[in-house]
Amino acid sequence: MPSLQDTLNEIVAEMAAQTERGEVASYIPELGKVDPAKFAIAVVKNDGEVAAAGDADEPFSIQSISKVFTLALALGRVGDQLWSRVGREPSGTAFNSIVQLELEHGIPRNPFINAGAIVVSDVLLSGHQPREAIGEVLSFMRTVADDDSVIIDRDVANSERATGFRNFALANYLKGFGNLNHAPEMTLGVYFHHCAVAMSCLQLANAGRFLANAGRIEETGHTIVSSERARRINALMLTCGHYDGSGEFAFRVGIPGKSGVGGGILAIVPGVASIAVWSPGLNARGNSMLGSISLERLTKRMNWSIFASR
Ligand code: GLN
Question: CB within 10 Å: which end of the chain, N or C, has fewer?
Answer without folding.
Answer: C
